[in-house]
């Protein structure tokens, strides 16, 4: 009976040691996992910062807020981040007023008691920094966009920039509508050349429109050069014409008047003070040339 008690005590001690060892192993594994997770989080943050994410400081900057969202999302996609990781990394680059806003918003959204996804964060962020009235204004600007004095290249950049605020035009199903919208905003001279083709692939439509725009500019430059050349050719003849005009004008002036009595230039016969006529044969005064005996 005494041996049985000893064996039982040994067995219990062995079980206690095994339990303690298992607990220690589990604790060590958990700590190792936490360390690995911490290392992974640190490495992920380092990778994120190496990609030079945009920093958002808040204030009234709706387009800056939209650009910030798009900028960090490009990095998230490249890093294949989870929804929770996106929130951790994205909020890391909210500074100053935006950082204060997130601290308050985080408490309001659950502060660790619920999982905050990136979509949840983005909805709160845009309500704060890109309110609906601004988004609607941008959507209207897109719908009313025309090429005007812009080149096709500049128009296409503006078109893509504003189309962000009309999500319908960025879906595969809306390719037809997107082409129709772009074409309707082109200048009439380009639209006339493009319209009959009914191009409904957006990239092709933009490229063809650029070609028409460049061709039109080349023609305009050519015609301007030819016109300038013709103008310069006409200008070269003008100095001679001006001289001729001056000469003609001079022949009708007072200095070109010649007296038929004395033969001197500068006055008319009625103003002549010479006594008698001057002979054109001998040059003497007192008789006319038909009366000259010399």
UniProtKB/TrEMBL annotation:
Domain of life: Eukaryota
Organism of this sequence: Trifolium pratense
Keywords: Metal-binding, Zinc, Zinc-finger
Protein name: Cellular nucleic acid-binding protein
One GO molecular-function entry: zinc ion binding
Phylogenetic placement of the source organism: Eukaryota, Viridiplantae, Streptophyta, Embryophyta, Tracheophyta
Pfam families referenced in this protein's UniProt entry, alphabetically: Retrotrans_gag (PF03732), zf-CCHC (PF00098)
Record's compositionally biased regions (Basic and acidic residues): 27-40, 225-253
Region named Disordered: 19-40, 224-253
CCHC-type domain sequence ranges: 258-273, 278-294
Keyword flag Zinc: yes
């Amino acid at each position: 009976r005494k041996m049985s008690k000893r064996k039982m005590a040994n067995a219990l001690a062995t079980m206690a040691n095994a339990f303690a060892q298992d607990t220690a192993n589990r604790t060590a594994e958990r700590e190792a996992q936490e360390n690995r997770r911490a290392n992974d989080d640190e490495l992920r943050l380092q990778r994120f910062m190496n990609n030079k994410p945009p920093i958002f400081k808040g204030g009234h900057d709706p387009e800056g807020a939209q650009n910030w969202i798009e900028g960090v999302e490009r990095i998230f996609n490249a890093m294949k981040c989870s929804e929770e990781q996106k929130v951790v990394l994205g909020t890391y680059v909210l500074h100053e007023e935006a950082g204060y806003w997130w601290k308050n918003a985080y408490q309001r959204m659950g502060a660790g008691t619920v999982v905050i996804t990136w979509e949840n964060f983005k909805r709160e962020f845009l309500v704060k920094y890109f309110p609906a009235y601004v988004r609607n204004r941008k959507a209207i600007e897109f719908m009313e966009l025309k090429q005007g004095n812009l080149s096709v290249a500049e128009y296409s950049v503006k078109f893509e920039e504003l189309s962000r605020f009309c999500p319908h035009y960025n879906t595969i199903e809306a390719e037809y509508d997107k082409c129709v919208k772009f074409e309707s905003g082109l200048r009439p001279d380009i639209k006339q050349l493009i319209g009959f083709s009914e191009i409904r692939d957006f990239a092709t439509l933009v490229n063809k429109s650029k070609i028409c725009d460049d061709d039109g500019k080349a023609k305009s430059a050519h015609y301007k050069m030819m016109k300038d050349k013709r103008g310069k050719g006409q200008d070269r003849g003008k100095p001679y014409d001006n001289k001729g005009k001056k000469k003609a004008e001079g022949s009708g002036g007072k200095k070109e008047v010649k007296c038929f009595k004395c033969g001197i230039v500068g006055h008319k016969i009625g103003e002549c003070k010479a006594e008698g006529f001057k002979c054109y044969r001998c040059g003497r005064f007192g008789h006319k040339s038909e009366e000259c005996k010399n």
